[in-house]
Write a structure and sequence with these properties.
By secondary structure, this protein is an alpha/beta fold. The chain is 39% helix and 26% strand. The protein has helices spanning 5-30, 39-69, 181-186, 191-197, 229-235, 270-287, 313-320, 332-342, 360-371, 384-391, 397-422, 435-449; strands spanning 2-3, 74-78, 83-84, 89-96, 103-109, 115-117, 122-126, 131-140, 144-148, 151-156, 162-168, 172-177, 211-217, 239-244, 250-256, 291-297, 303-307, 348-353, 375-381, 426-430. Helix 1 (5-30) runs antiparallel to helix 2, helix 6 packs antiparallel against helix 7 (313-320) and helix 6 (270-287) runs parallel beside helix 12. The longest helix is centred in the first third of the chain and has 31 residues, at 39-69. The relative contact order is 0.09.
């Protein structure tokens, strides 16, 4: 418990009053005008001053003892079930006042480093025997487990002479996931409509998958191989077989956790953009009946065997929500060897990384090793600042040097991508914010091409 500002003001007033009387008395003595401040007058002022001090001290002691005897204020914190990176949310605190008089409270919450909070501390008054709900907005800025401590309340006593510090509530934790708003939204609308909203265009190839779907009447455009001659003879009219894209295929993501994906073009790092794209593509693949697995490499190494069913998107989220990029150098060949040792069945291997010309030998060896058993796709992120340099007008010699250097880096990178394409590797070269669209587009192209 500590004195409040009101009590400190009273004490300051008493102190100033005492110094004032003392100063005037000294001046009166030195100026030989003691008649104005006689001994009786000084004694009277002293009596008044001591009376005020004793009265204030008595009130302060009574107020402090009485406040200690009251029951504690009750507090409960309500957190969202989970948070998404960059998604605004709010924390609600329910405070109950068990006293028969109003309370003035200053509240602050002990929030984790993964969260940015505003509007703290909060000052409010709660009525007698009442409950008040206090909310403040938060913004998750880092994925992982966010640990909230207790709430700190400074409660004014009834006469407002003291402030009592109380730590109330229980420590709580909440998980900050990658931004899965696109996945949450897609659960409320049709998948095809959701995909079209994202700018992903599906190429319809009616009846040309590899899995039998149903029999139907012959339509214009059907091929001869689709005709079911037994059904045609039985129904005495042309009957075609309908096929659908093959299901029960496997997709395994190789996620680079090295230093290349630590770059930022906006508030979200390249690594978080990669996670968002991985999650969206995984969800769509699970909805299509495929199994999805993942392996991270370069620093943080995690492995998840392929799983099936849309409900397993939660399994993937819980596997990735606290995964972060590191400063480790990426070793593609080592990652490929580890994957080959862990997974034998043919699958679509999607490597999400940021390729540079210096990676040419390593990525070539890794993809050639994986191609012996799998279909390989490399989804490479492109730094936006390189494109921005090319858009700026060259006005000086230094600008010209920057421009020529940037063009050289881009050309070397493009040559590497073309080399990998010539070796049969599926390639995407995307800005971080467009990676999810390009990745889903390429997934559907592979599905419809029958390469798996």
């Amino acid at each position: 418990m500590r004195p409040s500002q009101k009590l400190l003001k009273f004490l300051l007033f008493c102190l100033v009053f005492a110094f004032g009387v003392f100063a005037v008395r000294i001046v009166a003595v030195q100026s030989d005008i003691t008649g104005i401040f006689s001994t009786d007058s000084v004694n009277t002022l002293k009596t008044i001053w001591w009376s005020c001090v004793l009265l204030l001290a008595g009130a302060a002691i009574f107020d402090a003892i009485r406040h200690r005897s009251y029951r504690k204020v009750q507090l409960e914190r309500e957190l969202p079930h989970s948070l998404s990176l960059g998604g605004h949310a709010k924390v609600t605190l329910n405070i109950k006042n068990p006293y028969y008089f109003p309370l003035e409270i200053t509240l602050t919450d002990i929030y984790p480093k993964e969260i940015e909070a505003v509007d703290l501390p909060i000052q409010f008054t709660i009525a007698a025997n009442a409950t008040k709900n206090i909310s403040y907005p938060i913004l998750p800025i880092r994925r992982g487990s966010a640990e909230f401590g207790q709430s700190c309340l400074r409660i004014n006593s009834r006469w407002g002479l003291w402030q009592k510090l109380e730590l109330l509530g229980k420590p709580q934790s909440v998980k900050v996931y990658p931004n899965f708003s696109a996945i949450t939204h897609s659960s409320t609308i049709a998948l095809e409509h959701q995909i079209s909203q994202l700018g992903i265009h599906l190429q319809q190839r009616r009846g040309e998958g590899s899995d039998f779907h149903q029999l139907r009447e012959f339509r214009e455009g059907d091929t001869m191989r689709q005709i079911d001659w037994k059904a045609t003879s039985r129904h005495r009219k042309p009957i075609s077989r309908d096929y659908q894209d093959e299901r029960d295929q496997e997709i395994i993501f190789l996620l680079d956790c090295g230093r290349r994906l630590r770059n930022k073009d906006d508030q979200i790092s390249h690594f978080d953009h990669a996670l968002n794209a991985l999650l969206l593509t995984s969800y769509i693949a699970l909805r299509q009946g495929d199994a999805v697995g993942l392996m991270s490499f370069a620093g943080n190494q995690r492995w998840m065997s392929p799983v099936k069913g849309p409900a397993h998107i939660n399994t993937i989220l819980n596997k990735l929500y606290d995964l972060h990029s590191t400063t480790t150098t990426t070793d593609y060949l080592q990652a490929a060897e580890q994957l080959i040792a862990r997974h034998k069945k043919r699958a679509l291997i999607v490597i999400i990384t940021n390729l540079q010309e210096s990676d040419a030998d390593d990525i070539t060896a890794a993809t050639q090793l994986l191609r012996k058993k799998h279909v390989v796709m490399v989804a490479s992120l492109r730094d936006a600042f390189l494109d921005n340099i090319l858009e700026h007008q060259v006005k000086s010699f230094n600008n010209a040097l920057s421009y020529c250097g940037t063009v050289d880096v881009i050309n070397q990178r493009q040559n590497l991508l073309k080399k990998l394409q010539a070796l049969g590797i599926i390639m995407t070269d995307s800005l971080p914010q467009h990676l999810h669209i390009d990745l889903v587009n390429e997934y559907f192209k592979v599905k419809r091409s029958g390469r798996l």
